[in-house]
Design brief:
The chain has 9 helices and 12 strands. The protein has 344 residues and is α+β, with helices and mostly antiparallel strands. The chain has a domain at 80-159 and 225-317: 2-Layer Sandwich (BirA Bifunctional Protein, domain 2).
């Protein structure tokens, strides 16, 4: 059988596909035992997350099949976040009308998500995401819940909590990364002889933070035990609230789970202010435009939902394919999904 003739075959061996199915059963049981409701939201939407680093696939919704390029633009979702938050806001409206509903809501979803131009050993443009939201859950409790889920799926013990500041101290010797200047970050990169992309914007601190995180800090995380990194820079809040850390610095109430140097999950104590979201969307689109990338629709039904009243909640997105990679001891995402991008 030639290479072309075998291209119909799964890149994932069957024992990994069986493991994948078993992990899905355990994952759903974990949520159901804790009172979560499984929900579904659209894969295609007129709205999309506005992020300077995430590029959604655009789809033309044509009405005339003779003109397939003429029609409204819809987006394959990079995350089910918008739809799930709309459900949370809608539930608040119904809860006010029906006293028989529970006092708080917890929802989860297992779905496909799509991100253009993300292909590599840990990335496939189409991937499986697990996302959940829990009303009235604190920032600390959200991290504890993520640790428990990871322990249930991977049996690696409870996660260690490490602040973003502490991780940079340990890996790079930078005393306070939140207060560090761009020159200090450039010096740290130079000392470690990192390959610095020409596209790196020298005036942007976040670009240098992201470079150092990816090249130096991330590989050290989750080596002896799962690690939850928390309190990211305020400039990297995305859809998280801001708060003051123990040193009085304003940081993002955001956290990520790492195992063996691989990011598995990203969580927020969720932003509730619609005006602040509009400001962040505007900033993200400005950055996208400055980099020559297309802008994304800043107005959305999520903003309408937030104006209606989004309840206080935490939210987490987990890359399920990467969970399977860790459980299977796989080095490439192709080993845990049957038909990756080049065989789809």
């Amino acid at each position: 059988m030639t290479a072309d003739e075998s291209s119909f075959r799964s890149t994932a061996p069957w024992h990994n596909l069986f493991l994948r199915a078993q992990l899905l059963v355990r994952l759903r049981a974990f949520f159901q035992q804790r009172g979560f409701i499984e929900v579904e939201t659209p894969l295609l939407s007129a709205d999309t997350v506005v992020d300077c680093h995430l590029d959604p696939f655009a789809v033309t919704a044509y009405s005339d099949p003779t003109k397939p390029h003429v029609g409204s633009t819809y987006w394959l979702q990079t995350s089910p976040e918008f739809g799930m938050k709309r459900l949370l806001a809608d539930w608040i409206v119904d809860a006010d009308r029906h006293c028989s509903l529970p006092s708080s809501l917890a929802i989860f979803q297992v779905t496909k998500a799509f991100r253009a131009a993300e292909v590599g050993s840990q990335h496939n443009p189409e991937f499986t995401m697990v996302e959940w939201y829990k009303q009235n859950e604190s920032y600390q409790d959200a991290m504890q819940f993520l640790s428990q889920l990871a322990e249930q799926l991977l049996s690696l013990g409870p996660a260690q909590l490490t602040s973003y500041r502490k991780a940079f101290q340990n890996a790079l010797g930078i005393a306070d990364v939140h207060a560090a200047s761009i020159a200090e970050l450039q010096q740290a990169a130079s000392q470690r002889k990192l390959d610095i992309p020409e596209s790196l914007r020298t005036a942007d601190k976040d670009s240098w933070l992201n470079l150092l995180m990816a090249m130096v800090v991330e590989p050290t995380l989750g080596r002896t035990a799962p690690t939850i990194l928390f309190d990211y820079p305020a400039s990297q809040a995305a859809l998280a609230q801001l708060h003051n850390d123990e040193s009085g610095t304003t940081v993002a109430a955001r956290f990520e789970l790492y195992v063996q140097g691989i990011e598995l999950a990203n969580g927020y104590f969720e932003l509730l202010d619609p005006e602040e979201l509009e400001r962040r969307n505007h900033t993200a689109n400005q950055i996208r435009q400055s980099e020559g990338r297309f802008t994304l629709p800043a107005r959305s039904r999520l903003i309408d939902a937030m104006r209606s009243g989004l309840p206080s909640c935490s939210g987490v997105a987990l890359g399920f394919d990467r969970i399977v990679m860790i459980a299977a001891g796989a080095s490439k995402i192709d080993q845990v999904i049957p038909f990756p991008w080049h065989r789809a």
